[in-house]
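Interim report, section 4.2 (structural modelling).
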Amino acid sequence: MIPFITAGDPAPELTVPLMHALVEGGADIIELGVPFSDPMADGPTIQRASERALVNGMSLRKVLALVSDFRATNSDTPVVLMGYANPIEAMGVDRFVAAAGAAGVDGVLVVDYPPEECEAFARTLKAGSMDPIFLLAPTSTEQRIREVATIGSGYIYYVSLKGVTGSGALDFDDVAARMPQIRQGVGMPVGVGFGIRDAESARRIGEVADAVVIGSRIIEEIEDSPRDQAVARVKNFVEGVRAALDQIQGAPR
Amino acid sequence: MQTADKPYRFPDSHGHFGPYGGVFVAETLIPALDELNAAYEACRSNPAFIAEFEYELKHYVGRPSPIYHAKRISDSLGGAQIYLKREDLNHTGAHKVNNCIGQALVARYMGKPRVIAETGAGQHGVATATVAARYGMECVVYMGAEDVKRQAANVYRMKLLGAKVVPVESGSKTLKDALNEAMRDWVTNIHNTFYIIGTVAGPHPYPMMVRDFQTVIGKECLVQMPEMTGRQPDYVIACVGGGSNAMGIFHPYIDVPGVRLIGVEAYGEGLESGRHAASLTGGTPGVLHGNRTYLLQSEDGQIIETHSISAGLDYPGVGPEHAWLKDSDRAEYVGVTDQEALAAFHNLCHLEGIIPALESSHALAYAAKLAPTLPRDKILLVNLSGRGDKDMHTVAEKSGIQF
Ligand SMILES: Cc1ncc(COP(=O)(O)O)c(C=O)c1O
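Predicted structure of the assembly:
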């Protein structure tokens, strides 16, 4: 199970406690969103999280500091940063990779870096022992799957529907039908996300995928909670998903 | 500088202009762009497509637009002669429609019955709504909620033309956020929807495609200037928001030696004030809206808000080809302030009986600075990208007048 939260939402001081809560709730990997002013690929929920985080003064530098804090007491759970290219380019790719490595980041997913635009970035990340994570979509071609297999590492994030994060309903049959081809094509674990909203949808995706990614629904949980209850409620929600996943034979991540 | 023995050939097949341009989008949009690329390649080399585009430009838009020798302005400045390329005389009142016709024809070729657009001031939205009505397409225009309030007349115009206007409440609620929202619509509705981007920005092939449709401006000038003056101009001057009217008039001149290309950005309240929209002269390279280009951004790489009296120039990025023309020194980029643009606006009204758009007034203002420094036999060709009817409200307000 791979939960997603945006760093700095609802408040910078809650990010590390939320990360620990995700781990206690059963997260295998944490995707930590780096807020950006123009999150073109995100739906309204993650947009709002990004806006709140920016209002709270969050920046890429501060996200890395939060990862360092998290690493003070957790050296096991992989942390993958998910964000957009511009904050990384503003910091400078080399400086970013050095700083991310030092902070204890394990992988980086840059939403608007398709493989053909980031060969050098992916190489630099790998040289720093971090995984460049890539997206695949229902519409991705065979050639695309091969490109991603060559340049990416760690896992593949399969976006299960057309559209932006948080939108619409999942087509379980479609995901199930595509999974063998994608898994075979990339030769690494495949996480499925976009549109997983509860224990039941997580279980159904979990039956065919290596991991489920849950983002917008967790952000909603944070939005709906009073500040002092956000951490507990997120943990509770994630535990529910974990329990559903654990019912599956050969439990997925 | 480009010379005749080194013809200018950009972008490359992946949409790169040197280090700029490219395709910086999420995987979910890649198939849409691949599909568009293939369709546009088929259209641009199809004589029937080109013939229809030209027919529409002639009979619907009213092209070719004339070039006018602004003699009284030139005399009052006492230097170089100023010639105006009259894009303000196009149907819908600006250059924007050239591109909208082109993209709508590509949309029709692709069998997409629904078009979407982003708009700031509403000019591109109006042009898109216009062609959507002309070709019987459903039309949705995304517009920042702030802009919807500021540009009520254009919102009504779009509605009259049958378009749905969607106010965008995210981010800074302005043009850049409208573009984000249009992209989100597109990725969700790829099967039936064509996204008509309004300037030479966005992921490849947009900067190239929009440029190609707008180069009709410069191609006409290449013919008209020798007819009128016996030669090509010494300077070509255009305002730069996203950069489409400038690219449209610059591009055919890139390989013409001795013609200086000058893009004029919006310095707003002044470059030093920080309240401006000058991405090329006041920004740094980065990635936004699918391409790498010069951006106005914070140290942390967040996009910052822009300021200009002219809504059409109020954009924190700029087309990637301008970034390349700047770095390669083939074009020069300068800026003028709100005040300077307003003065040029009033001058053109009084001396030539032409009410220019506030965007175009930026190009006029720079020409007014440059002309007196040059001899009388020098020629400045200014792209008068649009007419100022839409700006009545803004200008009146500045003069303390309420309608
Ligand atoms: C009349 C006019 N000129 C110029 C612009 C700026 O756009 P671009 O730089 O793409 O020409 C606009 C945009 O709305 C406009 O309406």
